[in-house]
C-alpha cells in the first residue's frame, strides 16, 4: 500500500482568505490558492486544477502500462483533463472530469486502441475515485 500526502493551510475566511498547499514530494511547497485562483484568473492553483492534473496523469500512466503489456514500446500519449465546477445551491459540486487523449502508437489498430484506452479509463485509480461523470475522447494519430 502506498500513501501520499498533502496539506492545505488557510488564513482568514471567505473571499478574503489566503491558502497554501504543500505536497509530500515538495513539488508544491506553500503554493498559493484562494477565491481568485479558483473563480478568477489570479496566479496560483486550485483544487479542480490539481484534480485535473491527477486524473490526466493517472489515466496516461495506466494506458502506458496497458500498451506495454500489449507489446507496444514506442509512441507518445498526451492527455488533457477538464474538471468542471458548478454552482449547486449555496455551494459547488465538481460535476465531471473529461479526458482528451492524443496518442501516437506505431502499429496500433483503432479497435485495440479503443479497447485499451477504455480499459485504462475504467481502471485508473483516479477515475475510480471520481464519483462525478468522467468521459474520454481518445484520438489515435
TrEMBL record:
GO molecular function: peroxidase activity
Pfam families in alphabetical order: OsmC (PF02566)
InterPro entries: KH_dom-like_a/b (IPR015946), OsmC/Ohr_fam (IPR003718), OsmC/Ohrsf (IPR036102), OsmC_Ohr_Peroxiredoxin (IPR052707), Peroxiredoxin_OsmC (IPR019904)
Any one Gene Ontology BP term: response to oxidative stress
Protein name as catalogued: Osmotically inducible protein OsmC
Organism from which the protein derives: Sphingomonas kyeonggiensis
Source species taxonomy: Bacteria, Pseudomonadati, Pseudomonadota, Alphaproteobacteria, Sphingomonadales
